[in-house]
Amino acid sequence: MKKPIIGIPLGDPAGIGPEITMYTFAEKSLYDICNMFLVGDRYVVEKAIEITGLDLKINIVEDVENAKFEYGTIDMMDLGVVTGPFEFGKVDALCGKASYLYIKKAGELAMAKEVDAIATTPINKESLRAADVPYIGHTEMLEEISGVHDPLTMFEVEDLRVFFLSRHLSLRDALDAVTYDRVLEYIKRCTEAMEILGVKGTMAVAGLNPHSGEHGLFGWEEVKEITPAIEQAQREGYDVVGPIGADSVFHLALKGKYASVLSLYHDQGHIATKTYNFEKTISITNSMPFLRTSVDHGTAYSHAGKNTASAVSMIEAVKLAAKYAPNFNRE
Asked: How far apart are alpha carbons 320 and 322 in whole angstroms?
């Protein structure tokens, strides 16, 4: 079987993205499962190679077809955005602009089926704002590139897979988003996403309130919104159960009882996955024409330029992209 091609946008040049990307290209085991293609700036990559001290060569190409895909060589498109000195660990408009353009190009390559998936590196929201980029993060950018509204986010760490009913909302707004219609819609969308990934099994919906509300003793959301949505989904043939108390459902899923969990707000699922294994918790953006995986940490400005950042999460993101990419049929 032909190895999938994983596109990697370089991330914020002032953050740790370039360094962990170099270590990812230096991870020989990845070449057994995929080919990697970088979108970035030659100047930034040269600086990252200098900082890490890795024995890597750069092969600049105009399209993916001309890549060598040889260990020790970084095949890349040079966008020529950052071509001179910049300061590590600082918010910088040019770096924000570059990080956006790297993602945009990588997404375009995925939409054109020139790469099979993309694995993204960290970007900085303040730098994006300084560059007047009209998106707050990767998901919003990919929504525009793919033409898919509200693409699904899923976390995976070992056998634990977690979807999120809402992402970047205040806790008050997130609670208001827990409605019958939204829960039912997400059960259906998450089931479809799991089918695309080739994963079978029961989905569990996490409880919102302590002990899933205890029939209204600690809140009425389970009674009025969540349970009726689950029951309707079951009547329609969906393999879903719940609500299951949030203090146990993630543990049970990790042990294999459930194939996935629908978390009802951002931190509920983030805390569960990251507490178990922070570095190996990988974010997947699903329901688009292409797969996107990502590290789930930031630009770590305090480590940038110092060769002290761990590349474990980035390497895991590429592994997961290679694992699931064949399910997104490349023509």
From this structure: 5
Q: Which two tokens stand for residue 148?
A: 């898919």
Q: Which amino acid is at 74?
A: I
Q: Cβ(267)–Cβ(258) under 8 Å?
A: no
DSSP run (H or E) holding 78: strand 73-78
Tell me how far apart the alpha carbons of residues 79 and 13 are, in angstroms, rounded to a whole number.
13
Q: Which residues of 113-152 are buried (b: 16+ CB within 10 A; e: fewer)?
A: ebbbbbbbbbbbbebbebbebebeebbbbbbebbebeebb
pTM of the model: 0.86
Rounded CA separation 93/48 (Å): 20
User: Alpha carbon 110 to chain centroid distance?
Assistant: 15
Give per-residue pLDDT as tens, 14-72.
999 999 999 999 999 999 999 999 999 999 999 999 999 999 999 999 999 999 999 99
Q: What is the DSSP letter of 124?
A: -
For residue 182, the SS3 value is: helix
Cβ-based neighbour number of residue 170 at 10 Å: 10
